[in-house]
Amino acid sequence: MKTGFKELDEIIELNKGELIVIASRPNMGKSTFILNILSHISLKEKKSVLLFNLEDSKENIINKLIISNSIGIKQLKEASVYIASEVPYLVDDIYFESRKLKEEKNIEAIIIDYLQLIQFDKKKLLSRDNEITEILRRLKILAKVLNVPVIVISQLSRRCETRDDKRPIIADFSSSKNGILTYSDKILFLYRDSYYNNKNVNNITEVIIAKNNGGSSKTIKIAWLPEYCKFGNLELRTKKYMEENYVK
After folding, report:
1. What are the domain boundaries of the chain?
2. How many of the other CB atoms lie within 10 Å of CB of 178?
3. In the prediction, which pLDDT does 247 show?
4. What are phi and psi of 46, to 5 degrees?
5. What is the per-residue pLDDT for 37?
6. 177 φ, ψ to 5°?
7. CA 46, CA 43: separation in Å to the nearest integer?
8. pLDDT at position 104
9. Are 89 and 119 in contact (CB under 8 A)?
10. How far apart, in whole angstroms, are the C-alpha atoms of residue 168 and residue 173?
11. The one catalytic residue among 55, 59, 161, 243
12. Active site residue 45
């Protein structure tokens, strides 16, 4: 299964049974990035996707998908996208809902926005760090049991913003760094220099592959197009390409 980003797809795949973590500081575009991946999987690869969005409304998510893909509501309805939103999900809720839809709709990928909003029975655990670790373990089991990729967004701590080079590293996970390293198969960081550097106006986002089981680690660059709620391959930044292939 591909992400839809050409250079990224040359390095990684979204394999069945994998837990993939996509992380960054706020305002880097994590939610948009995973919606772009969802769009590619559902509209281009014609696979069914289950999205747990624990923060945004279903209506807003649908509007973003329509804008970013320049499509109508009818075309979106033809895609196999199932959205669960505005619910304070326990990890067990995610597990059982996913198993149910796997049986009923044969979902082929699960996306969760985002890790820190998932809850667990805190009475059984000693710390939030242990709680996150147990959630990650359950999500990895879910990926293996259903034989689908599970993609989960994670926030990062402010630690990276105290450095001259603000690109994220593994140590920037605010909690359960060891849990994330233990249970994730891939870790991707998003970084946009123009957010921190006003002189940089090129709207290029770096996708930093920090962990890639069985593959190489590398940084690739993609274009950020805020007016379309979209990331894309770098050629999308050219006006001619947009006019010929995207703007309708």
Report:
1. 6-245
2. 12
3. 44
4. 60, 40
5. 94
6. -55, -45
7. 5
8. 94
9. yes
10. 9
11. 55
12. no
Looking up tokens 């699960």, which residue turns up? 110
CATH number assigned to the domain with residue range 6-245, chosen from the 4 options 3.40.50.300, 3.30.390.10, 2.60.40.3780, 1.20.120.450 = 3.40.50.300
Reduced to 3 states (helix: H, G, I; strand: E, B; else coil), residue 210 is strand
Q: With beta carbons less than 8 A apart as the criterion, state whether 19 and 143 touch.
A: yes
Note whether 14 and 1 are within 8 A (CB).
yes
Pair 188, 207: CB distance under 8 Å: yes
Tokens of 42: 């559902």
CA-based diameter of the chain, in Å? 58
Q: How many CA atoms lie within 13 A of 94 on its CB side?
A: 33
Distance CA(51)–CA(86), nearest Å, equals 12
Per-10-residue mean pLDDT of the chain, 248 residues long, equals 93 96 92 92 92 84 79 69 78 92 95 88 70 92 98 91 90 82 95 80 87 89 83 67 47
Q: d(Cα 9, Cα 212) in Å, to the nearest integer?
A: 12
Task: Please state the length of the chain.
Answer: 248
Q: Which residue has the tokens 């198969």?
A: 185
Euclidean distance between CA atoms 61 and 158, whole angstroms: 27
pTM, 2 dp? 0.89
3-state secondary structure at position 33 = helix
Q: Nearest to residue 230, comparing CAs of 79, 91, 47, 31?
A: 31
Determine the pLDDT at residue 201. Answer: 61
